[in-house]
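User: I'm writing a tutorial on reading structure tokens. Could you give me a worked example: one chain, its sequence, then its tokens, then a sentence or two explaining what the tokens reveal?
Assistant: Sure. Here is the example chain.
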Amino acid sequence: RCSSDLSVMGLTQLLSLCLCLVPALSLDCGDEKIRGVNAGGWLLLEPWITPKLFEEVNVGENLDKIVDEYTYAEFLDPDFYIGRLKLHWDSFVTKEDFMKVSEAGITHVRIPVGYWYWDVEEGEPFPPPNMDETDDNNPLFYLKRALVWLDELNMKAEIDLHAGPGSQNGFDNSGRRGDIGWVTEDYPEDNHNVLRTVAIIDKIAENMKRWVDEGVFRQETLYGICLLNEPGGWMEKVWSACKEELFPLGYDAIRKHFDEEVAVNFQQAFRPASDYYGLMPESEGYKSISVDMHRYQCFDEFWAGQAESDEGWFTHIDASCRIHEENINATWPMFNGEFCLAVTDCQKYLNGGFATPYVPPLASESACQYYNSDWDTYNDYYKDFLKQYFLAQIDSFEYGEMGAGWFMWTMKTEDNCAPEWDFMFLLEKGIIPANLCEREIVCEF
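And here are its predicted structure tokens:
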């Protein structure tokens, strides 16, 4: 017979064990809207998010050669490449980060990944895919760990194929800066990289399903899979490849492994929202598709001009509130997968990528003296604008039945180097509300 003290001790231990097995609850507004952040610059490098990671290797004969993850692997010793990125993968995104954003009402995390984690062809500089997920030299070790954390916090993930083979847009965020090689002028006769992308999507979905079946995380933790981030749809051949092959074949690849409880996500491809109205409709048997729009107010001549205008901040707020109109005629749920609070391209390495020195292609020198990424120099008027600007954008993103919500780009930056892009920093500074469920409404619809 146990003593009463031992019985109490045993009961306490049992309760503690049970509590450990129950997923922690994040703040959820209960309206089924996506409120999310991107884990940008983590499992796929971008120089402006982690400038020191690139500056430390762009020295000597490598100066201005290492500008993306492809060249990081190409010009550096393979052991250094893996060893340095292992330190980054292990430290840049933590469970504590997820906990902090979840307390504010963030329920989703979009995780950009590169194709080379699952598929490498001869001539590419990346190491062969490592399928040993217990090896902490393997990026999939850290992806798996992050999904476990999100599951424990009752949050959801979108796996975003951010980099496609050959580069789908020529930007550094595709893994390889330069020309678009995902399709060429020989498309559709040469569709190798398009079909390779579909095969990679199949591998990603199979990987996620295996982890679910092994009990690594619950299926409901996986919101969806994005087929490919930001294809350069300004090229008609790229847009044709999306509509005719990537979207239908990528959909089928995911549905081989997951039913409609996991969303198939189409990224905008630099096309107007109206191009997605009626695309692959439910009447043809498609289910649980969502469309990811990316809307930035800092990347063209118009917005560069607004940075010099006395009325510029008001123009940003008005434009943000008008975005809701694109949700009205949508036939699939639309979320805004990337946005920020920047109004210029002054941020070091942001527009055009790593260069010594970095000269913004659009913003003037005087604008960049003001929008200088130094928080301590910002006045209260600008900080008040940033508060309203954030709220106006998310008001539109959440509008209506088809306004599915948003993911801000990005969750964090190296040493808070990009304040207007850094969700966690803006949350800490009171620009983003501490409780997204009880926030001010800016737009009048």
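What the tokens reveal: DSSP finds 14 helices and eight strands in the chain. The mean pLDDT is 95.
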